[in-house]
Amino acid sequence: MSYNFTQDDIGKLLSRFSSENDYTLTFPDNIGSISSQKKIINDDILFFKSKVLTSNNIKIQSNQKMNGIYVGILLDGTVTYNDNILNKSIILKKNETKISYINEFDITTIFNHSSNGIGLFIEKNFIEKNFSEILDLNSKNIQKESSTTLKCKNSNNIHLAKELFTSPFHGGLHDVYMQSKILEIIYNEFNELTFHKQSTKDKKVKITKEDIEALYKAREIILQNKDFLTVLNLSKKVAINEFKLKYGFKKLFNTTPGNMILEQKMIHAKELIEKSEFSISEISNFVGYKYQQSFTNAFIRYFNIRPKDIMKRRKYYY
Predict the structure, then answer these.
(1) What digits encode the pLDDT tens for the residues 253-293?
(2) Residues near 122 by beta carbon (within 8 Å), at least 6 away in sequence
(3) Does the structural domain 205-311 have CATH classification 1.10.10.10?
(4) Domain ranges across the chain
(5) Dihedral through CA 231, CA 232, CA 237, CA 242, nearest 10?
(6) What CA–CA distance (Å, rounded) separates 166 from 207?
(7) Diameter of the chain by CA atoms?
(8) CATH class of the domain comprising 2-196
(9) What distance in Å separates the CA atoms of residue 234 and residue 148, rounded to the nearest whole number?
(10) What is the per-residue pLDDT across 192-224, written as a single tens digit (0 to 9) for each?
């Protein structure tokens, strides 16, 4: 026997402005419950940890307009997604990942008794800034569909998902731990999507003499300029498309423009922390970070030391 329910306030759960408090949906007649813990990682990324405990199959119908990618990793159980707009069904099993770009959804989710997993909702702005070579959000194929499934298969990030599900930390250390694991999952998943897409494009890409000149000019800008342009703005500045910029950097310099920009940001920031009298907040702004915590997390991942620990070596520090 299965039970049907309608979820009317899914939008509140997905809103980055709503509370981080636990979200619980309790079913009548002691059927069970669904609990979801929500964590706002930054302006563009939401994290969910969900646990379903039921004695029967549960069907929940929900709908919402949104713009972004949802990454779901199922750690236990089986979940069926019935897309009521596209009239399609996808079954997600234990240790599988489902990645979808969503404009709008009207989905009936069927939980086969108990299950648990994690989910990430990534805003459109983040995707356009970091993964435009994978997904052209303005393409007709994306715009005309309510949702597009990019992946549904065994996950290579189960160990990371389990670590997130059972995080042993609290407070500030918990936040850093969560962000590092989540960004690693995003990198791994999108790197896999990039590999599959790029493998078909590589055969068609031709680098001209003008392209090579533009690529060397782009590298010089990164190494000499302290404005720290985004990859998109850099491609515009040297008059080469973003995909060819990334492809050319990998071929000529064995790195990506994003990694080279990050390296220069971190080197410059470390030098300012060691030798200047600027505060960490000021330095984070100098190298293009809107939030000091985001800069601190990036600095720790790069140098394996906190900025303030280096700053303490100054005669005076903030």
Answers:
(1) 999 999 999 999 999 999 999 988 899 999 999 998 988 99
(2) 44, 45, 68, 69, 70, 71, 186
(3) no
(4) 2-196, 205-311
(5) 90
(6) 47
(7) 72
(8) mainly beta
(9) 29
(10) 876 555 555 555 678 899 999 999 999 999 999
